[in-house]
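User: Can you help me understand a structure? I only have the sequence.
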Amino acid sequence: VSVEDNGIGFGPELASQLFKPFSQLAAGSTRSIGGLGIGLSLVHGIVALHGGGVEAHSDGAGRGSRFTVQLPVVTRVEPRARGDARSAHAAGAPSAGLPILVADDNKDAADSLSRLLQLSGHRVRVAYDGASALELAENFPPRIAVLDIGMPGINGYDVARDFRARYGGAVMLIALTGWGQEADRKRSREAGFDHHLTKPVEPAALEELIAQAVPAGQ
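Assistant: Let's start by predicting it. Here is the structure, written out as tokens:
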């Protein structure tokens, strides 16, 4: 299946980069400031789960884009035993959905990450600034909080300190930010973060951290 448009296009050197979460187009592009979000990464992941592949092609800037999805033809599906735990893990489903709070003042990034986590079976709530994150947590105590650091007003460091004081070790705090210098990582540790990830993040890396919060035996 191919989908084509006559939009802004991209250079051939960017074709392999488009499927990375929050990837940027070339400098000077009208889309370069906000990035591409996580939509194309989701497409790539879902198609891969079905044994297929997806490719992007463009003849250059301003010359449109074409995305091609290839999927295998299924001729026979073997019945699965009812309650077969292996089938759930093979599909990438978690054994138990976790309450996760996502806070990021980039609305598109926050919503995209929320959808990704929901596809994995988690219960997700989204806040678009630090103050809203603190308020939301009053009625939604998170097991995991994924926080942008550079939010206006109450920033991610402040939210992390509040959550650590409020929930202690019952919450896993993950910084997801564009700030990746060693000084930034040191400051996030001092604020109480358990992990520091820089954008763009690979979904598998985030899921690996989240899996650590699932209690043993579940």
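Now, to help you interpret it: The first helix runs from residue 39 to 49. The two ends are 39 Å apart (CA to CA). Let me know which part you'd like to focus on.
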